[in-house]
Amino acid sequence: MTRQSLLYGAAVLLLASLFNRILGFVYQILMIRLILPEGIGLFNMVYPIYVLVLVMATAGIPVAISKLVAEEMAVNNLHGAYRIFNICFAILIASSILFSCLCFLGSPFLLEYVFPNPKVYYIFLSLLPGVIIVSLCSAFRGFFQGLQQMTPTAVTQSLEQLVRVVSGLFFAYLFLPQGVEYAAVGASLGVVIGEIAGFISIAAIYFRHRPQIPAGLSAYPVEPFGRSVGRIFNLAVPVTLTRLVSTSFLSVDAILIPQRLQIHGLGLTEATSIYGQFVGIAQSLLFTPGIIAVSLATALIPAVSDALALNNVKLVRVRCEEAIRITLLAGLPSAVIFLLLAEDLCGLIFGYPEAGASLKILALGGPFLYLQQTTTGILQGLGEASRPFRNLIFASVFKIIGIYYLTGLSQLGIRGTAVALVAGYVVMAWLNLADIRQLTGFKLNIYNSLLKPLIAAAGMGLIIYLSQYYLYIHTLSPSLSTAVALIIGLISYILLLVFSGGIDGNDLRRLKSILVFKTRY
């Protein structure tokens, strides 16, 4: 099996993520129009709690698989890689069954003391079968990522998303006559059915295309079982704590935001609807450019681990610089677009332009959000997963305090929530960057990595503003003028980068090598 480069692996995941995001957008648009923001709000009140259960069930094991398999493969120990995978797979079977049962038995307690709206009860129950499925699926994906083979993850995630969209819309439409909450149950069933499809496909790839141990290959001394488990949990525990804190705070957000919206007079249904617009529209648009950061973070863990195992600090720095520059190249123009076209995009795509007020504020934190995702992947690849955990606690406490105070202000409401989230993104990104600099001596090239993309993004913003104004006064419809201005702006951004040297010949040669690289299983 051929190892893929960092850029190729990130590009494969990026293409799959782009495909998934397009499908997700279509799904989100149709779902919001089908079950309205109230139904989206109900689903998103319970989904973070479901993710929290997944985090506890997987216990950071998939990241441990990715990193430890990469370390074993760096010294050509395929026996050791399979042994790590088998131990982790057994742990995941036990933990996922345990947490699924605990959640089922504890669901009445959650209904009474946790869920902010009683209509979400059956939505939560319908998601529970996904805990075991996702846990086992994540083991296979972690194994291939450890081999620096991102294609299996990309292909199966795309299939999973496709099945989720089709089945989710079908069941939501089928259950809609019973009420909005039952339509949201249909969306939950779509999630589980998609996860089943992803699990079957990744398992099939593993059993058909996994690397075979060559006959006569000398095996390394077998590591004691206790030491192997220790290595797994030394990495898995801080990763689990990081994700546990992250998803716990997301769950707090899902509970706290609707409650604080009701402080200044909103009813439960109206607060649920506004919350649905915030998470289903404004945050969905904000997270779209993050597919690049998430793809990089996934590919960075084994790539940085591999360089570190070979004691190649220079290569670690190069990969850090490469990843952060790509993140800024995507994040800065995205922020400008959301600032200029927030209401237009929310109205054109989803039919709710009022969600643009929150998106404009969130746009200021967009580049920091994407940097937070990329730098977390770097730190995990360096074996320092405890650092983003510490940083996340600090940033999340800061954010929660902001949500509690600002969302309850009648003059701010949901815009106060957006301000609090932006503050959390900024704090987390800066703390992560400071840790990377301390660990590796990495220094960001301000001129090439920040100033050139920033100047190009500013120029793009001016072109978008002028283009939209010119097209609108020449009788083009608002939606068409927005779409055309956006296309013109994106083209101008790329051209400005090329002319300013923000994208150079090396970048084009790397892109060409990615496009012509052939993957073998």
Short description:
This protein has 521 residues and is an all-alpha fold. It has 17 helices and no strands. Helix content is 83%, strand content 0%.
Task: Describe what you observe in this structure.
- The chain is mostly helical.
- The chain has two domains: 439 residues, no CATH class; 77 residues, no CATH class.
- It contains 17 helices and no strands.
- The C terminus is likely disordered.
Descriptors:
single chain, 521 residues, mainly alpha, 2 domains, 17 helices, 0% strand, disordered C terminus
Distance between the termini: 5 Å
| Average pLDDT reading | 82
Computed Rg: 23 Å
Counting copies of identical and different chains, the oligomeric state is single chain
Shape verdict: globular
Number of strands: 0
Structural class designation: mainly alpha
Unreliable runs: 513-521
Write the H/E string, N to C.
Answer: HHHHHHHHHHHHHHHHH
**Number of separate domains:** 2
Helical content stands at over 70%
Q: How many helical elements?
A: 17
**Beta-strand content:** under 5%
Most strands sheet: none
